[in-house]
Inverse folding.
DNA sequence: AGGCATGATTACGC
DNA sequence: GCGTAATCATGCCT
């Protein structure tokens, strides 16, 4: 009631405005008879209060009458003003928020993934980029990519149809509420500004729903990506030949198993894998070898023999018996046994009878043994360390001591000639 | 199914 | 940028 008296007080000035409502003889009569604006307003309010007690038709008629009352615009504006000052001004503070950074992030991601934005091939570019970034082997699947694209297109379609649905619902709801409020503004104090605010509130509600949609779409894309494009998920073992090539290089460069960039490229080409895969392989190999030399001993022996056999064969073919015991007297060979003790572990094991070989390999083993004697300086490097300590630990400049790679075709175990 | 092997990734140091 | 060490995730064998 306190409010009411304030309103009445506020209206006291307005009521005196010379606006005789000729369409409403009743009010004219009352004003004439009472001569008091306050009483006039009180009368109006009484009529408003009494509306609920009347029948529908009567109420409608009364509403219409009140609507046309000359006091109505003034009363309306004052009530709006009061409302504005009390309730809405408090709310207004937190309304003007800046564009949500989270929704911007989601938008950017969806754009980057090819879900939102223009159609044009959609996520295929993103897929290719991701595959390239993952260093995936070139032989892996266009099938998987098309599968990925199909799934991405599906997500995209769902996203867009949902988005459209939300937008439509939002505008429908907004229109509905606006019409309702406009309608109601004839009978209760609702300013256009308030309608605007209400629209803003509705939009925010819907945009939070939209954000959820975007978020779940992002999640779906991430899952899809991880399933199809994460290199670890589609890890395939290298084929036997590739592993052999890599192992040959590794064991024949055991003292310094750090292939140069050119050697890596050559190995990559030979194995049908990427340079970064070669790097990964050597990284893994070094660390695993170092961790458990014993486990790799047999493998090392095997490759030493293989290398020796190859070397012996090539040497025999090339030099036709003049110097049969020194197959690797060349100066620039990539994996030659005579080089700086590369196969130290292999040779050590050979001397120590760590494994058995077929009789056909015996001559080559003998050759190796001979080679050991010729390179006697390495015999005291008994097998605790995988490489001479100064080589492994002195990592100041590994590339500078990397064995030279000769002709491109000589990356793996052949002799340098 | 469980364990080992293996290719890739990540964090960190230089 | 490269190497190491640790770790992850998958493949493969028993």
């Amino acid at each position: 009631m306190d409010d009411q008296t304030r309103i009445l007080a506020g209206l006291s000035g307005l009521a005196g405005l010379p606006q005789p409502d000729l369409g409403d003889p009743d009010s004219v009569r009352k004003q004439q008879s009472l001569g008091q604006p306050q009483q006039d307003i009180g009368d109006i309010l009484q009529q408003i209060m009494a509306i609920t007690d009347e029948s529908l038709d009567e109420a409608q008629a009364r509403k219409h009458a009140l609507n046309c009352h000359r006091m109505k615009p003034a009363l309306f504006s004052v009530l709006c003003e009061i409302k504005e000052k009390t309730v809405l001004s408090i709310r207004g503070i937190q309304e003007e928020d800046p564009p949500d950074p989270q929704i911007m992030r989601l938008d950017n991601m969806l754009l980057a993934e090819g879900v939102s934005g223009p159609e044009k091939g959609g996520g295929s570019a993103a897929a290719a980029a991701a595959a390239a970034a993952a260093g995936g082997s070139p032989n892996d699947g266009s099938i998987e990519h098309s599968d990925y694209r199909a799934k991405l297109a599906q997500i995209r379609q769902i996203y867009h149809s949902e988005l459209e649905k939300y937008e439509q619902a939002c505008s429908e709801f907004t229109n509905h509420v606006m019409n309702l409020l406009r309608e109601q503004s004839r009978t209760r104090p609702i300013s256009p500004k308030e309608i605007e605010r209400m629209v803003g509130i509705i939009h925010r509600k819907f945009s939070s729903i939209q954000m959820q949609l975007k978020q779940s779409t992002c999640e779906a894309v991430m899952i899809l990506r991880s399933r199809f494009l994460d290199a670890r998920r589609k890890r395939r073992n290298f084929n036997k030949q590739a592993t052999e090539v890599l192992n040959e290089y590794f064991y024949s460069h055991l003292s310094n198993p750090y292939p140069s960039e050119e050697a890596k490229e050559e190995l990559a080409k030979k194995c049908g894998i990427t340079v970064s895969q070669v790097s990964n392989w050597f990284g893994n190999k070094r660390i695993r070898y170092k961790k458990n030399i014993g486990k790799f001993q047999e493998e090392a022996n095997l490759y030493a023999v293989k290398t020796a056999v190859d070397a012996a064969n090539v040497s025999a073919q090339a030099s036709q018996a003049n110097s049969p015991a020194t197959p690797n007297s060349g100066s620039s060979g990539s994996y030659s046994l005579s080089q700086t003790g590369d196969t130290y572990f292999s040779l050590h094991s050979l001397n120590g009878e760590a494994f058995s070989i077929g009789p056909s390999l015996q001559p080559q083993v003998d050759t190796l043994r001979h080679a050991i004697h010729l390179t006697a300086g390495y015999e005291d490097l008994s097998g605790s360390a995988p490489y001479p300590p100064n080589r492994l630990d002195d990592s100041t400049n590994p590339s500078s001591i990397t064995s030279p790679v000769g002709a491109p075709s000589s990356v793996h175990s052949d002799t340098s000639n």
Q: What stands out?
A: The CA atoms of residues 148 and 228 of chain A lie 6 Å apart. Residues 134-135, 230-232, 235-238, 276-277, 280-281, 283-284, 288, 395-396 of chain A lie near DNA strand B (CB under 10 Å from a C1'). The radius of gyration of chain A is 44 Å.
